[in-house]
Amino acid sequence: MMKGDTESRWLEDNQRYLSAELASVRALLRKRCPDAEKEGAGESPDSGLKPPAEIAAKMTAPPALNKLSGIFGLSPFERRILLLCAGIELDGSFAGLCSSCQGDGRRPFATFSLALATLPDAHWSALSPAAPLRFWRLVEVEKRDSLASSPLRIDERILHYLTGVFHLDERLWGLVRPCPPPAPLVLSQRKLSGRILRAWSRARATGVWPVIELYGKDKNSRRDIAAAASRAMGLDLYILPVPSLPSNPADLEAVLRLWRREAALSSFALLLEYEDTEASDPVRASWLESIVDRTGGAVFISGRERRRLGERSGSDFEVVKPSLAEQRDLWAAVFKRSNGEADGTIDAVVAQFNFDSRTIYSAGSEALTNLNGDERSRHEEKPFGVAVWDACRRQARPRLDDLAMRLEPAVNWDDLILPNLQIEALKTIAAQLRQRVRVYEDWGFAAKSCRGLGISALFAGESGTGKTLAAEVLAGDLRLDLYRIDLSQVVSKYIGETEKNLRRVFDAAEDGGAILLFDEADALFGKRSEVKDSHDRYANIEVSYLLQRMEAYRGLAILTTNLKSALDTAFLRRLRFVVQFPFPDAEGRAAIWRRMFPAQTPTEGLRYEKLARLNVAGGNIRNIALNAAFLAADEGLPVRMSHILRAARTEYGKLEKPLTDAEIGGWA
User: Whole-structure pTM over 0.85, yes or no?
Assistant: First the structure.
């Protein structure tokens, strides 16, 4: 018999069993009030029902009522109270019987006093808040007068359960959500999932589930492993973010008790996801421990850092992203499934993007969708590898877009006017970014030392000398995203906040290896001060933390400063590259002017050797050229020397700098 047929048969048998049990309680009510319900001539409606035990003996699985009674340890009296309350909802005759037995037509409901007087094996302790009926909220007391005379209502979720309708309690819908099906696990993750299953091996028999703690940087992998282990145990996994829990103790207890009831009734597992602040703060950590201890069933706790939480027995496992070799295999499967030519793209992608399984498959699907849906890509026969690279960049952006400004590079090496020494240094940086996996992994440098493997650089020079432009050129050449972070906005006067801000940036950028441009490094760097008070000490800690994260960052992190002399030499030694951007000489300024106006800009009579006499940096030259273009456009004329002169006066005024005759002599 198919599974569907088996379930259908069980539902029918469970309904018959419940009807037979309700009939037995209805008979007890009639016995107490024999004149309450006058049956017409003919056969009683209960006469055709088989005894409950006979029905249960032939069922493929235990009736829901029996299972629930066993789970919560209901006594025969408590079980009949539950049936009495269920009868009010399921059988119209129960309301009349209850009002007649209580001698009041206005009381068509069950009460504890009616149960004590009518049902056998009665005991007063069933009314206690600590007893199963009230503790597990199987029935609700609508308190009016005395406890014994107040109406009783069966909980809606329990009523559905008794009838064979299984679902998550609606009061938990806004707090927990189903975990998506896991992405295929790589070998190392399958082994970890197997260890979790071994830790759970006795849980089915004993009913004591050890808490499983998963920790590590990769949230997706933690979820996938928890989902895979739960599925292997026949459990549906739900996610509960700890910050969404109510802070009010009474409301929190109600939520946790509801979940414990759900975990007992259904094949559910829970993934408690906490933030770092939930475990690092002593007060919040204590609160979190109490939550873990009061959450029943199969429970995972998941966070970035390892925290032994609560007193329940358990095991902890570190979860890491797939290794480089495993990522290569995942990408190879993506390319094979999409019939794409790898042509060296896989190694390049693995070198740049550190993705988990779910993100790799998502990027592959996005690339294929975009390639098939982009008419221009089909016309140009855009390689699948290029589409994958672009999809990877988009996958890595969301977390960082909220923390920094993404710059869209529109320049190349020809736009960068610098001496050969600086150009060679920048090209060396680009080469190291392209070849870091080969050198670190294939050639074994990473095994020799894990320190200082990040590529960090300092771009020093006056404002407008091309520091940001150089970063854009690198990003364009490497086809990477470039994000600018203003350090003056990151630095906080509150102790510890600067490190938190920096960590958020680096953590968000880690997967995609974007180029990070930390502007205004002078806001944080300076001569290492003598430690005179706590502020001096923490200022040094902030600098050390930034350099530490730059050294560990798998992408390129660039600091910019206008005053290299203000930096401590001890800090400079920890940077792999220091590139000095000189103020451009006359020849350099002439070259900048020649490249400044786009080909479609109409110009007339521009004399670049004269323009080069303007003693300003490239950034100022761009401002002058742009302002001159607007002046010319407004007059309906091509850009002329006269427009540039007017724009130069404006720029020099902004700089509070005189425009000398030596600079503009002979322009007319």
Answer: no
